Every structure is written in C-alpha cells, then in structure tokens.
Amino acid sequence: MNRRLSFSQLCCLFVAVLVILATAQTASAEAASKSSLSSAASATGESFGIAGHYRSGQWTAVRLPASVKANVQIETTDGDGISVVYQQNFIKRAATDEQSPSQHAAFGYCIPGTEAAPLIIRSGDASPTIDVQSRFPESGVPADGPSMIPLTMPWIVSIGDPLGIETIGVNELLKRNASIAVSRIERAETVPDHVLGFSGVDMIIITASGTDVLENLSAMQGAAIGDWVRGGGRLFVTLGANAKKMLDASEWLAALLPEEVIASSVVRMEPSGFESFTNSQSRLSNFDGWQLPKMIGAGGTTLSSVGEVMIAGRTTRKIGLPLVIRYTAGMGKITLVAADLDEAPFVEWDERIDLVTKLCGELLVEDRSETGSSFRLSGYSDLSGQVRRSLDRFPIKRSFSFSIIALIIAALIAIVAPLDYFLVRRVLGNPLLGWLTFPIVAVLLSVALVLAAAPSSNKSSTALLKPSQATLQQPVAASDNLLRANAIELLDIDSATQTGRLFRWSYLYSHPAQIVQVASRQSDALGAIVDKIEYQMLHPFGTPGQLMGGIQIDGWSAPIEVPVSRPEMPTDEATTDVATADDGLRLLSRIESLELAPRSSKSLALQMQFQTSLQGSTVQRRKGSELLQGQLVNPFEVDLLDAMLIYQNWAYFLPTRFPARATVKELDRLRQKNFRWQLSRQRALESSSQTEAWDVTQANQPERLAEMLMFHGVVGGVRYTGLQNQILGHLDMTSLLTADRCILVGRCRDPWIPLEVTSSIRAGDTAATLPPGDTHSWVRIVLPVEEVRR
C-alpha cells in the first residue's frame, strides 16, 4: 500500500539526517583530535618529567624537540587554573659533534599545577611560533607508561634494576596495582640536566645494571643528581663486584662518596648478615662485595668512619666488615650496600624485596592514605593546608563569619518580600511602586556591603606587624597600594659540605584590583653568606585537592609571566650558552604580569639552593654518652631568638637572644629537655604525663606550625598531628638527627629574602615596595659532632 509522507514528517526526517551527519562529523573531528594528541603524546612520551612521570605542583623537565629555537616559552596552568608562561633563554645546544648524544638534549622547566595540564611550547624572537601543543599525561598506573604520580604515592627513580620495588602492592588476583611508582631510566638523554627536574622524587636507586646509563650521562646531568642529593634527596647505591666500573663511569657519584670508599676494593664476603637482618630461612652463597670502611664502636652505637652501620657482616676470612652503611651527604642521605643486589645470588633470593624495604625505612612501608577525620574537621589532610590557612590571614581584610553572611541574606529576603507586600500593597495601595522599592533596597544594601568590605584602618592593620618590620613600612607610608604579604621561610645550611637552601612560602594580598611584578631581594645578612647561587626560583605555589584543602578555579586573568634566566656572568663567559661542568646550570626567576583580583591573594613560593663559605664550629660529645659539652658559636651575623641545639632526642635551650657571633662557653650547663616532649608540649605529672593535643583547625600559632614543618617525624608524624606532610615534607630534618650531627635552630627577627613588588595600580608608578606583613623566619645549621676520647 502506497503511503505519502506529510510535510511535517519530511521536515523531521530532514532534521534527523542533519543531526546524524553533524554528529558523525563531530565524532570524526574529536577522534582526529584525540589521535593527533595521542600521537603527539606518544612521540614525546618520555619528554615529560622522568621517563614520562611527573608530579603536579612540582618543577617538571620538558625535553624540547630539535626544531625549537632560542627564547623558548612553555605555557601551562598553575593550581588555580591560571595560565603561566615560563620564558626561558638558557637552552643549551651541543657545540661539537664529539659530545655525547645526551648533551644534544635541551630541557625546559615548568610547573604543571593540575593533572593533564595543557602544554604549549613556543619559540622565536619577534613572533614566537607554536612548536608543541599537547597535555601532560593524566593520573594512571605508572607501570603502564607516562602518567602523573599523585603525592600520596612514593616515587622512585631507578638507574638500573629497581630490585623488585615495582612489585610492591601488586595483587593480580585482586587486580591491585603497585603502590610504588618506579621510573626506570633506560636512556641517558631522558635524564634532566638540572636539579629542578628531580623535584618530587623520593629516592634514586643506582645498581650495576645501570652502568651504561651512567657512562652516557653528561657532566650537567650528573651534577644535577649530586645537587639533588646534597639538597635533601635520598640515594640508594649497590656497590659489589662491579663497583669499580660504576664509580669510574660517574665522577659525580664518586664526589658524593668518601675517599675511603672510592679507594676500596672487592672482597669475598659471607651473606649471614643479610640472612639475619631479614630473618631468612633460605641460605645464600658467598658473594663478591665492595669493602666498606671498618666499623668502630662508641657508646653502644655502631658507627663507621663515614656513617651509621645498618647491617654488619664479615668476609670469608672472618674479618668484620659492614654490609650496609648509611651516612649524611649535605642534607641528604646515601645508603651503600656492599653487594650487587641485581645479580646472583640475590636476584633469585625471595627475601631481597624485604631487605630493600627495611633499608628504605618508612618510605616504602608508610601508609600515605588520606586522613579522613582531619579532612572532615579542617577541610585539608596535609600540614601544608594548615600553613596555608595561617598565611592567608590579613588584618587589613575584614572577615565575617558564616552566621553574619546568613543573617544578611535572610534580612534581604525579609525586607524585600514583606516590604513589597505590606508597605506597597497595604499602606501605599499601589503595586507599581514595587518597581522602585526593590532597586532602592538592593542599592542601599550593596552600598552597605561595599562600605563593610573597606580595608581596615592602617593603625589596626599595622599593629600586628613585628617591631623589626618598621623599616618595611617606610616605602609604603608615602603611597599605600594596599598590598600585604605574609610568609614563612626556612634557611638551612650544612656546615660540612657548605651547602645551603632556602624555602619561602608567601601569600600576597591586594585590596584593590591591580597588576604587579614580583621579584626577590636578598637581605644583607643572606648576601654575606651566599657565595654562589645554584638556583633561585620564584613561582606560583599550590595544588588543588584534599591535601591543601583547595579547589581549582578556572583561570580568569591574563597569563602570568615567569622569566627564567641565568644570573649575570662576566663578559668573557656571557657569550656562551653551554654551562661548564663545574658551574652547572644556574637559574634565576621572577614573576611578571601577576593580576590580582579585588580582595584576593596569591600563593607564591621561592626555592633557593646555594654554596656558602659559612663554617660552623664542631660540637663535642662525651665519650660513651649522648651529652654534649664544650662551646657553641653563633656563626651568623644576625641574632637568633628562642634558639635550641638539638642532638638526637635532646634539646639544649640557649638564651632567649643568642647574639651574632656570640659564644656559649659550656653546653652542659644549659637547660635540657626531651625534644619529643618539647614538640608535643608534654609535661610530667605525679604518676603520669600529659601531652597537648594537636588542633588541626588552629591557624594563629605560626611558631608551632614551623616546629611541625621542621621536625614532623620526631613527634610521631601523622600519629600526633593527624595530618600528612607530603607537600612540604622536604623541610623535615628528622633524618639528620644522627649520632654524628646536631642542628642549631633559631628564629630570626628580619626576613632573609623579602619579596619586592612593583605595582601598576597608577599610571607611571614604577617604584618597588616591600609589602608589610607578618613574616616568620627561621634558620637551621647542621653541625658535626665528634666524640672526645678522654
């Protein structure tokens, strides 16, 4: 039977055909886009971070293609979703064809603030062209390829065999992936050439099977790993029968180790020490190991001439030798194993993973899961979230509780609705007048809210400033641009290696909307002790998520510009783009075009690593005890307030004001206290003790927060505070409280490196100011301890 379609049916059919065609075209375009993006990502998979792995909120190396020219711009987004352009003019190129292939690589550095952050690479002088447009990898399974590594997962970089660490947590029956992220380096050209490229890495493992990679590393790549270790990194090295070849292939590794380790030799050893340490039921055969320095006993503590002996053993000739030694290198730790754990007889040993796990300590066994109860109370689960809450408090900004805001909203509803009904209808009798009463009420309430949001008086806003910061108020007094900056900064120095680092976390607040340029200014006290700057990087800081309690906000402002350059050099060296092996790649940065919204703040961090000629005095320890004696000198040109000398689990309280270059004649006469008790505010009662509980919501005790940041592990870590310490965990010096080290800690009156801000709120205003605020500055110097044998 013939049927004719109506006009409406024809229209519906036509529309359906158009929808199907449009959907197919969109799907094909998306597929092509995903295909091109995936092909770009696969082509540059190992160009992100280390072996394709990276952390959000941390400096990440980006290996640039050969087509990239000079004046490189790397654009991505920070933790607030705002675009950040890292302008880099230090890209090095190979000068001759005789150099190794790894020296032909060029790296740029940026900080992806979020997972799968966009990545745009431009180059060129006049009109930069886009060379790469892609995204950083998403969070996934690190063993499957490039991915973002969450902060809750330990990150291990392996040069050689990872010794089975990549299998920790794997359960095929339960379809459970590994709980440890392992980045195995198979090609030297993927290794970053600057210490910034190793940001976020928890430990580096080097075994004999990675000797080929070590041989192809450039001098700058090796120097980058060495700087990372001395700046607080952890290194795990196996030295067995192939130790001589490994040490000859990497001069930077030999520079980290003591001379007596380098000059040693191979010896035949028994495995009984490894078997006892792991409670193994399976026997190992004898093996060729590297002869580590002999151990010495002092006061019940087993030490070698270079560090702490973790496992003692003996040779086949029954001569006692250490099997594992851990010692301090700058502010980092190096663990030496006198065996090639990636070769026989250990490669088939069932307890090999237990041995490595115990030697790595809490890094591989610590539970890094989120702390649910703390998050429900405070909105964050990491100690950095509490510090963030403390820094983002400004007296100039009027604060209102939620109850006040709720009352204002209820009042607006109550005024508009009853006023419109009773006054306009019942009293005036003309409903059209409601078109006048409603905007009048809205305007009056808006004016009242604007007046309430006005900044506090200068008297109240400056009353909370420290007396020493009166000098910072002088440049602001002439023309107050309503900029304020709160900060906490920690300066750390190791007197043995004369290595220093500084971390400053600032919150910059602006009451009106304005665009500013931010740079760092070294104080005279810091300039007096800094000899050579390795890097001094100023950048946006923070990541979204539960750790810091923040949420990502889509970017609304213009891109933030972060020029990254090398420091000024003499004329004869300024023309070269390739840094020497001794000099390394020294970088500086600042922030330009930082747009601040009205009544808003921005989180900024400054990281600095340098070499210093500052030398601290050696502290003496009584033979056979943990008590210190002798004298102590303040090596700084500034006074130290509320200073303590910390040795293992004891705190020696110095005078409230420890003057510059002053000397304490007798340490044993100082008041002492258990350091753990001091941090937890524990006090003894008649038959028990009482500990002050940690309040995760407290935000007005910056001194207590600084103590937790500096020694979170001493007090028990998450068991005491209920908070993780993952984002700022590199500031924790608990691991340096060893038998041969002590730490002098003190608070400083003036900041070490304040921020210098240039505001463009008024046309032609180019004067730089130091915004007033509350800055808490601390210094820690690691001093050697020697035993007095008399």
Q: How is the biggest beta sheet arranged?
A: 18 strands, mixed
Q: From the helix content, strand content and strand pairing, which structural class follows?
A: alpha+beta
Average of per-residue pLDDT values: 83
Ranges where pLDDT stays below 50 over 5 or more residues in a row are 29-44, 93-104, 296-305, 458-479, 569-582
| Count of DSSP strands | 41
Shape: globular
Amount of beta strand: 25-35%
Question: Compute the gyration radius: what is it?
Answer: 30 Å
Helix percentage: 10-25%
Distance between the termini: 119 Å
> Counting H and I runs of at least 4 residues, what is the number of helices?
19
Structure notes:
The protein starts with 6 loop residues before the first helix and ends with a strand. It is α+β, with helices and mostly antiparallel strands and 790 residues long. The protein has 19 helices and 41 strands. Helices cover 24% and strands 29% of the residues. The longest helix has 37 residues, at 7-43. The strands form nine sheets. It has an 18-stranded mixed beta sheet that branches. Strands 10-9-11-12-19-18-17 form a seven-stranded mixed beta sheet.
